[in-house]
Design a protein that fits this description.
The complex is a heterodimer. Chain A is mostly helical. Chain A contains 47 helices and eight strands. In chain A, strand 7 and strand 8 form a beta hairpin. In chain B, a hairpin with a 4-residue loop joins strand 2 and strand 3. The two termini of chain B are 23 Å apart. Chain A: GO terms for molecular function: DNA binding.
């Protein structure tokens, strides 16, 4: 959409001369400024907009005004929010404030935009009115829910005014109950007898008798649009009383009668102009010239404006106008059958005019209204791929509701574009039929050679070569949605054969679909290769945010392959890619931090892991994919477990189970199984056994990749049950572990092999150490280059003993020693001492640790090679920071805060 | 534009509705509101009979009435017989 059209929507209307002062309404509106929402709700022509404008102009200069005149195109959330944001930016620019930091809606999921707006507005220093004019045109529930969110989270310095012909589906009752709603309704807007007198006699100077005024008041019921028309009809009329008598005596619909009267009193040229342009939402001289086929429209518009003929200026320079909506609608009713036929031709001209100026949305709208469906289809075909990129799928679907299917059927390129729109909004019904049709059309074109075959048309020739690849791509997506993985793979592979090498988007999408399929089958090396292609292709196609989703898949797959370092590298690279983008933060960045936290945790860098989890949480909703809330909690629970916060770990994993959100990725690590693992590790075997029943896993199940994580969890449970109390042999878990190991080896999943080997070592230990060490050696050799730590250390004392045996036998002593160093008390985490007003310095920590020993003051000073004076200063600072006044209290407080165990940096 | 809303009986769940509006409307308004015909009543109201409307089409008609500034007095489902009669 071009800048000029947006500007006309943001223009704060000016009052024209001849508007009477309605102090009572101004007062009500001014009172409304203290509530969140002022709703001006009344039928057409009641002067809603005028009342709001008059109030804004009457009040003392205060704050900024963001104005948005809504129309039907705002029913797409992306478009609606883009316009709201533009209105805000316009408003702050007018008061000289710096632009608000709000992301571009097309780059954000619809549901986070209102939140981003709220955050940005909170930073605004002054007050601001947002006026949403003609809110009744909004029908999309998605827009309403976003507006509801906005209203509920509005900072106190922001106030919303809506004018509407129908009460909007917003929580009005709740706002009313909270006294956050001020309403101005038809009864308030009707002109009182005094106001009618003031308007007709003082402003228009008609000098009517009290009886005439009363008659007009009765007949129009204080409806200002009708009064205004009546005034126009009476202007310059000799027999005003006769007009009023006749008007009052007729039963005809007031507005219809008056519009006819007014039209009859206009010169022929003006009457024709009005009837020929009444269908235009916006009018400019050049557009009207093109539509009417006559010159001089600019002057005619000036005349109409001066004559008060319901023309509303849309910009400062009076370049664009619109008719008062009701006036235009009733004008259109004045057209007879012949004129209505002619209207179609006029609409086509308007469509052409907009098309030449690159205003495709307007061009399509007028072509559809002209019922020139061929032209509309052609225009939509030219626009559809760009609009998809801008996420305007809803607009396209609205158009499709008017466009006859026949017009789509003869256009394979439009058909495939439409298939893409349907697939992206998850409407798979009828997709296969559409694809077959596209294929038939494409085949006909190929068969016809150089000429376009009868009954087939293509406007966007550049897209034509992409058609066969895209057909297969959407078939692949459709197959996966239906759960037919094999067919999904077949179609996705066809995409790679058919799509040209520079069709990065189609190839990347196909590669990602293949990546998902291979992943689900446990063919991880293939999945890794495809996802790498997918990620790089998405980058080349410029879909940077989507590369983050691919990186998450790649990271997870590498973890399963036991490639910790590559997983870390992938996440770090993704963070670099994200950081290189201008604000806002790309969606998915929070998920990458979460993924990296899991890798760092495995490598026992618990503080860095915690830092990334904090970074993930601080990024806010806009940076998250729907899966991050549960994935974050899984990582947090595991980290808490490592940090020694066992109750916290259990509580957090419970929430993670509840917050699970499915996506296209295979659910290879069900959260319930992770929960069971935490329970097993904490010795809560009865609770873990309940999971086993719910999950329906058994020790005799055939191994499958999709259930591998659950089977290993089961093996852990069996092993723990067996070894409980020290009497068991570990043998119960052995057959299952052996089968799982074999399957993992066939699939070359080193991550699983390491874990299974560790469990096999522990399970075979009671029968003899040789067998145990054999398994452990396998785990160590795979784990050493990748820096695994927690998978070993989390097994506790029995693993510690085995590792000591490893060191003794010089199998992999260096790595085993490193692992052994990680046993022992957990490292403190930074969040554990929030009560600490100010962190202790390294030196103070040294002093503190020695305060816990039995050394006296002078001895401590000697130990640290500092003077006794310095030592006293440190001690004083430590006492202050810990809020204590004795050595004993300092030591016990430090133990509480886990400061005593911290290693030296 | 003559919207193809009414007059499509045979839709599932289609009904015939009778709407009364304040004021007398010229016959031209029938085309504008996409109803087959309208009747001006002696009490200063106009009756429209809209045939073959499902709920969505009825709401579309109500919205057009709203946007034309007309005052709606009543909406009722017409007896099935009038449906046949209007065909």
């Amino acid at each position: 959409m071009s800048g000029s059209l947006i500007a006309t929507k943001l223009f704060v209307p000016k009052l024209r001369a001849g508007v009477i002062d309605r102090g009572r309404l101004n007062e009500r509106l001014q009172r409304g400024g203290t509530a969140r929402l002022t709703l001006v709700s009344a039928p057409a022509g009641f002067g809603k907009t005028t009342a709001v404008v008059a109030w804004l102009q009457s009040r003392p200069p205060a704050g900024a005004v963001a104005w948005l005149s809504l129309d039907g195109t705002d029913n797409q959330p992306t478009v609606f929010w883009a316009h709201v944001i533009a209105a805000f930016q316009d408003a702050v620019a007018r008061v000289g404030a710096p632009p608000l930091d709000i992301p571009e809606p097309s780059e954000q999921p619809d549901n986070v935009v209102p939140g981003a707006i709220v955050n940005a507005l909170a930073a605004l220093p002054g007050s601001l009115e947002l006026v949403l004019d003609d809110y009744h045109v909004i029908e999309q529930p998605e827009v309403h829910s976003g507006v509801t969110f906005l209203l509920e989270h509005l900072p106190p310095n922001i106030h919303v005014v809506m004018t509407t012909r129908a009460d909007p589906p917003l929580p009005l009752a709740r706002l009313r109950a909270q006294r956050e709603l001020v309403e101005i309704r038809a009864a308030d807007l009707r002109f009182t007898a005094d106001e009618i007198t003031a308007y007709l006699n003082d402003v228009t100077g008609l000098g009517l008798s009290a009886a005439d005024v009363a008659a007009l008041g009765d007949r129009t019921e204080g409806w200002i649009a009708a009064l205004q028309l009546a005034a126009l009809s009476m202007e310059g009329r000799e027999d005003v009383a006769g007009f009023i008598a006749e008007f009052a005596g007729t039963d005809r619909y007031v507005f219809d009668y008056l519009v006819e009267e007014v039209l009859q009193r206009q010169p022929e040229t003006v009457r024709e102009f009005l009837l020929e342009t009444c269908f235009l939402d916006r009018l400019s001289g050049p557009l009207c010239d093109a539509v009417t086929g006559r010159s001089g429209s600019r002057e005619t518009l000036d005349v109409l404006y001066r004559a008060n003929l319901f023309l509303v200026p849309l910009d400062e320079r009076c370049e664009w106008y619109r008719y008062h909506h009701l006036f235009a609608d009733v004008l259109e009713t004045q057209l007879d059958a012949a004129a209505r036929d002619r209207l179609r031709a006029l609409r086509r001209r308007a469509s052409d005019w907009y098309e030449v100026r690159g205003e495709r949305t307007e061009a399509v709208r007028h072509a559809l209204a002209a019922e020139d469906f061929e032209r509309a289809a052609e225009l939509i075909e030219l626009a559809i791929f760009g609009m998809q990129r801008m996420r305007q799928e809803l607009t396209i679907r609205t158009w499709m509701g008017t466009l006859p299917d026949a017009a789509v059927r003869r256009r394979p390129v439009l058909g495939i574009g439409l298939a893409g729109v349907l697939a992206s909004v998850g409407e798979f019904e009828g997709l296969e039929e559409r694809l077959r049709e596209v294929e038939r059309g494409f085949a006909a074109i190929t068969a016809a050679g150089d000429t376009m075959p009868e009954g087939i048309a293509v406007a966007d020739l550049a897209q034509l070569p992409r058609v066969p690849g895209l057909v297969e791509l959407y078939r692949a997506a459709l197959s996966q949605v239906r759960g037919d993985m094999a067919a999904g793979v077949r179609h996705a592979e066809r995409v790679l054969e058919l799509a040209s090498t520079d069709d990065h988007l189609a190839r990347a999408a196909a590669a990602s679909l293949l990546g998902i399929a291979y992943w689900s089958e446990g063919k991880l090396e293939l999945a890794r290769a495809r996802w790498t292609e997918g990620r790089d292709g998405l980058m080349r196609a410029g879909h940077v945010a989507d590369t983050l989703g691919a990186s998450i898949a790649l990271g997870d797959i590498n973890l399963a392959l036991g490639r910790l370092r590559e997983a870390a590298h992938i996440f770090e690279y993704a963070l670099e890619v994200s950081a290189a983008q201008r604000s806002p933060v790309l969606r998915g960045t929070a998920d990458i931090h979460t993924g990296l936290a899991l890798v760092l945790r495995e490598q026992n860098d618990l503080e860095a892991a915690r830092r990334h989890l904090l970074a993930s949480a601080e990024l806010g909703e806009g940076a998250r994919l729907p899966q991050n809330p549960y994935r974050w909690r899984v990582a947090d629970a595991l980290l808490r477990q490592d940090e020694g916060d066992l109750d916290g770990a259990r509580a957090v994993i419970e929430t993670a189970v509840r917050m699970y959100a499915a996506d296209m990725f295979p659910n290879v690590r069900p959260v319930a199984a992770t929960r069971a693992r935490i329970l097993v590790a904490q010795g809560r075997l009865d609770e873990a056994a309940r999971w086993r029943r719910d999950a329906g896993v058994g020790p005799d199940d055939a191994p499958s990749f999709m259930r591998e994580y659950e089977h290993i969890t089961l093996a852990r449970l069996l092993l723990a049950e067996d070894l409980k109390g020290g009497g068991g042999t570990g043998a119960r878990a052995l057959p299952l572990l052996r089968r799982l190991l074999e399957a993992a080896q066939v699939g070359r999943r080193n991550g699983s092999i390491i874990e299974l080997s560790i469990l096999l070592a522990l399970a075979s230990r009671p029968a003899g150490i040789e067998e145990a060490l054999k398994h452990l050696a396998r785990a160590l050799s795979l784990a050493a280059p990748e820096g695994y730590v927690r998978t070993f250390v989390d097994e506790g004392p029995s693993m510690e003993a085995l590792l000591k045996a490893v060191v003794k036998r010089q199998i992999d002593a260096e790595y085993a020693n490193r692992l052994l160093a990680a046993f022992g008390p957990a490292q403190p985490k930074p969040r554990m001492h929030p009560e600490l007003i100010e962190a202790l310095s390294e030196r103070e920590l040294d002093v503190l640790r020695l305060l816990g020993s039995d050394l006296g003051g002078p001895e401590i000073a000697r130990e640290l090679a500092i003077s006794e004076n310095t030592m006293r200063t440190h001690t004083k600072n430590i006492y202050e920071k810990l809020g204590v006044n004795s050595r004993r209290a300092a030591v016990s407080r430090a133990e509480e805060l886990q400061l005593m165990t911290r290693r030296k940096a | 534009m003559n919207t193809p809303t009414a007059g499509q009986s045979g839709r599932p769940e289609a009904e015939t509705y009778e709407l009364r509006l304040r004021g007398h409307l010229d016959s031209r308004w029938a085309a504008r509101l996409a109803v087959p015909d309208l009747t001006r009543e002696s009490d200063g109201t106009t009756t429209l009979v809209a045939v073959g409307l499902d709920q969505a089409a009825l709401h579309g008609l109500l919205q057009r009435i709203r946007d034309l500034g007309l005052t709606l007095i009543s909406v009722s489902r017409a007896p099935a017989a009038s449906d046949d009669a209007s065909k």
